[in-house]
């Protein structure tokens, strides 16, 4: 061990018990003991979204005892390998999932949790997880990670300091998230107001959704790419840019499509892409975007492409479909008999609405696209602020747990 400004270099295995969690989850139920998985571990905290449950009788407690407050969970594999979170009183009595659990035995639990978020520890973890073909950590990897360890009282002072300072930062981040949400809500309200007015306006005519289009055809997934001319871009739901209601430019998936299928299903700029299958609890099926790609492309079989009819502005048509979604008019037409949502196209496209003449459609489209661009710009600015604030938080944690700042006087706490 080497001394570093009053701090000792100590491997985690000397101050913690490092164990594995459950591995595969037991039989699940609608309620019971929460099972904390990698998806619930985020930046030092446990997130309840997507939590699964099991009956306590189905949990092998001899192999994986229930968690208690003060333990630290570390993501063992996947995209978020190395992320960690402390178990608070709220989650005491939960079950560990597949991930690793650290039980402090010679270190303050809060100090340990902050140390796991510091730059030095994350760098060590990055080296360990990169040794496998897929990001992965085992108990030995984490046990050998070295942290900076001061005396017990100093650990508690640092943890108290960071509790207070990170709470302030988290509040700022919470307010910025609310700002992002309000920007999107305002944009959605403007979209619905402009293309789906509550009452008929002068010059607007009554119609049904399907009459806005002269082609309505299912997408096609095709075959594995062959490396020949039959390979074309295939636009998926994952390619939707949901804030701008567009898709295509960033699509990278290639599929092999026969000439006959391509003749039937080749996309044209301005086509409306409607998600007809997929969705989920938080993002139900039915989202729609404009295709703005400039390459030969089809869309996947989870999508329907709609080609606007003569006299209908293509962008306006896409914005109408987007407004139907934003006003939840897709919900009554969602059918779900399996894990995938499907939309009843016949019923959904038979909804009545009013549309103006072509010139007015184009004017509305231009106005809304300007609003969308402004909202996107403001959102990007808020996102950048959030990124910088998060960097500031990580720098503060690193400085505190390595002794670079004196938390008693908070000297150096305003490091850039």
Question: What would you say this structure looks like, in words?
Answer:
Helix 4 packs across helix 6 and helix 4 runs antiparallel to helix 8 (358-401). The protein is 32% helix and 22% strand. With 416 residues, the chain is α+β, with helices and mostly antiparallel strands. The chain has helices spanning 109-115, 119-129, 139-143, 152-195, 259-265, 314-326, 345-348, 358-401, and strands spanning 3-4, 7-11, 16-20, 28-29, 33-36, 41-42, 45-46, 52-54, 72-74, 84-86, 95-96, 100-104, 146-149, 205-208, 213-218, 231-235, 246-247, 254-256, 272-275, 277-278, 288-291, 297-299, 303-308, 334-335, 341-343, 352-355. Strand 6 and strand 7 (45-46) form a beta hairpin. It folds into 3 domains: 3-149, DNA methylase specificity domains (Adenine-n6-DNA-methyltransferase TaqI, Chain A, domain 2), CATH 3.90.220; 162-187 and 357-408; 205-355, DNA methylase specificity domains (Adenine-n6-DNA-methyltransferase TaqI, Chain A, domain 2, Alpha-Beta Complex).
């Amino acid at each position: 061990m080497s001394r570093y400004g009053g701090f000792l270099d100590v491997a985690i295995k000397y101050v913690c018990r490092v164990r594995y969690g459950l591995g595969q989850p037991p039989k699940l139920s609608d309620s019971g003991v929460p099972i904390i998985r990698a998806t619930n571990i985020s930046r030092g905290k446990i997130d309840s979204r997507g939590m699964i449950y099991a009956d306590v009788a189905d949990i092998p407690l001899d192999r994986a005892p229930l968690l208690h407050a003060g333990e630290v969970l570390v993501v063992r594999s996947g995209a978020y390998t190395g992320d960690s979170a402390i178990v608070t009183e709220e989650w005491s009595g939960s079950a560990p999932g597949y991930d690793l659990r650290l039980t402090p035995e010679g270190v303050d639990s809060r100090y340990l949790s902050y140390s796991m978020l510091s730059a030095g520890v994350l760098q060590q973890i990055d080296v360990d997880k990169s040794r496998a073909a897929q990001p992965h950590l085992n108990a030995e990897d984490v046990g050998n990670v070295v942290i900076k360890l001061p005396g017990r009282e100093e650990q508690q002072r640092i943890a108290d300091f960071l509790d207070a300072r990170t709470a302030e930062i988290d509040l700022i981040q919470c307010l910025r998230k609310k700002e992002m949400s309000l920007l999107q809500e305002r944009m959605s309200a403007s979209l619905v107001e402009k293309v789906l007015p509550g009452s008929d306006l002068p010059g607007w005519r009554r119609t049904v959704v399907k009459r806005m289009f002269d082609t309505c055809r299912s997408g096609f997934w095709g075959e594995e790419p062959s490396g020949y001319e039959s390979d074309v871009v295939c636009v998926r739901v994952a390619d939707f840019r949901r804030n701008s209601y567009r898709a295509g430019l960033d699509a990278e998936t290639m599929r092999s499509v026969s000439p006959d299928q391509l003749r039937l299903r080749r996309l044209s700029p301005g086509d409306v892409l409607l998600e007809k299958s997929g969705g989920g609890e938080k993002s139900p099926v039915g989202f729609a975007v404009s295709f703005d790609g400039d390459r030969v492309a089809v869309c996947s079989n989870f999508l329907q492409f709609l080609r606007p009819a003569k006299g209908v502005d293509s962008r306006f048509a896409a914005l109408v479909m987007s407004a139907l979604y934003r006003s939840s008019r897709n919900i009554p037409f969602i059918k779900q008999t399996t894990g995938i949502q499907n939309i009843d196209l016949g019923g959904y496209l038979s909804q009545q609405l009013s549309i103006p003449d072509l010139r007015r459609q184009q004017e509305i489209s231009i106005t809304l696209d300007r609003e969308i661009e402004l909202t996107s710009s403001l959102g990007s600015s808020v996102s950048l602020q959030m990124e910088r604030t998060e960097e500031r938080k990580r720098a503060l944690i690193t400085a505190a747990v390595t002794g670079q700042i004196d938390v008693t006087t908070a000297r150096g706490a305003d490091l850039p």
